[in-house]
Hints:
Layout: E1 2-5, E2 8-11, H1 30-33, H2 47-56, E3 81-85, E4 88-91, E5 96-99, H3 114-124, H4 135-147, E6 153-157, H5 160-175, E7 179-183, H6 201-204, H7 215-218, E8 221-224, H8 229-238, E9 243-248, H9 264-274, E10 278-282, H10 294-299, E11 305-309, E12 319-323, H11 325-328, H12 347-360, H13 365-386, E13 392-396, E14 399-403, H14 412-415, H15 420-432, E15 435-436, E16 445-446, H16 453-469
Parallel strand pairs: 5-15, 7-8, 7-9, 9-10, 10-11
Antiparallel strand pairs: 1-2, 3-4, 4-5, 6-12, 11-12, 13-14, 14-16
Helix pairs in contact: 3-12, 4-12, 8-9, 13-16
Amino acid sequence: MAATIGGISVGLGIPCSTxxxxxxxxxxxxxxxxxVTVEEKKNFTLKKSEEAxxxxxxxxxxxxxxxxxxxKSVGGQPIVIDSVKGSHMWxxxxxxxxxxxxxxxxxxxxxxxxxxxxALAETMKKGTSFGAPCLLENTLAEMxxxxxxxxxxxxxxxxxxxxxxxxxxxxxxFTGRExxxxxxxCYHGHADPFLVKAGSGVATLGLPDSPGxxxxxxxxxxxAPYNDxxxxxxxxxxxxxxxxxxILEPVVGNSGFIAPKLEFLDAIRKITKENGTLxxxxxxxxxxxxxxxxxxxxxxxxxxxxxxxxxxGGGLPVGAYGGRREIMEMVAPAGPMYQAGTLSGNxxxxxxxxxxxxxLKEPGSYEYLDKITKKLIQGILDAGKKAGHAICGGxxxxxxxxxxxxxxxxxxxxxxxxxxxxxxxxxxxxxxxxVYFAPSQFxxxxxxxxxxxxxxxxxxxxxEKVFQQI
Length: 470
């Protein structure tokens, strides 16, 4: 079944390719198609990882600095990474993995890219942080503004969470209203107003709304099921003239991969315009991943404000928010809404982002991502069904996901029907076969330009084996 969203035909959970550039050329640089030499497989062991993780638990809460890394939802010993290159990574025990996490999205041209590393080395000779303007900020800002349809001005920050905090304050300042609508299972960072029916680690660990968040911080946050426009219409009816903004992931990546249903994005855009409410696309994951102009270019829906992160830092800590000039000029020092950051726009993150975006703009990049991701997800789904498992999933460009349920999956409630225990067994089996997926049913997966046909074939073969075992 297909629908038209912003003039583009999209299947439910199975998206179409974008038409951004020429077909992937056979003469494309070998840096993209380069296969990583694979030695004879060693016996799988996590002895060193176990020792390191046990020591870490005495030093850091849960032994990690971000919750999902602890493998609580999939069980077993977390792996401790030693190095990464291209589409592969190695743990401290010497195990090698084909990586489909990509540092949760930023590694879209591959890990430790030689050109990015060389550019960073040159930049570091001048210093790592100025706490003052640098010319590199102008360069990356121009690239972001020219690429993303909604952005006329941009402010760089240091994380996706910080970007969402800033854009929420800006929306409230511009509209003079306080209430916002977010969607169940969507994650916009760990700021207090967003920790209501949140996705990502909150969903993975089954946590309730977080202790330490005062009621006043979430009082103005309204929630609705993703893909349910009637619920949104009811909120606007009951809260007339009070809603400052709607914030959403245009493709959900923090409840697993969930594509927008039918005319959902069109309807959201229409109702926000009719009510003087700002529409915010959280494109921290989807920005520069679904297409060079992000989800808003892919679907043909232009929001008022956008948050970005991950890819625009090329693997270094970064975030950004931007939008229409009249809105962005509310931000200090141009306007009265205050937001600041010592490391914002630091030269290293700007350099990595610039060189990553340059690579993505080369002809054929998104066609290649679409080609390999389609092959990957179709191979996994076919293998799962052939082995008798209930499984569904989809992809758009270099972003994908699957659930152990017949589906379809339109929202977080549907996602929770997935057999999480089976996913945990699958995850562990794939680890032992040298494939690294996110250690959570409720996280999307990512491919990169460094993934090869061999990577995809090996992954599908591993999945066929593991599906038979679980």
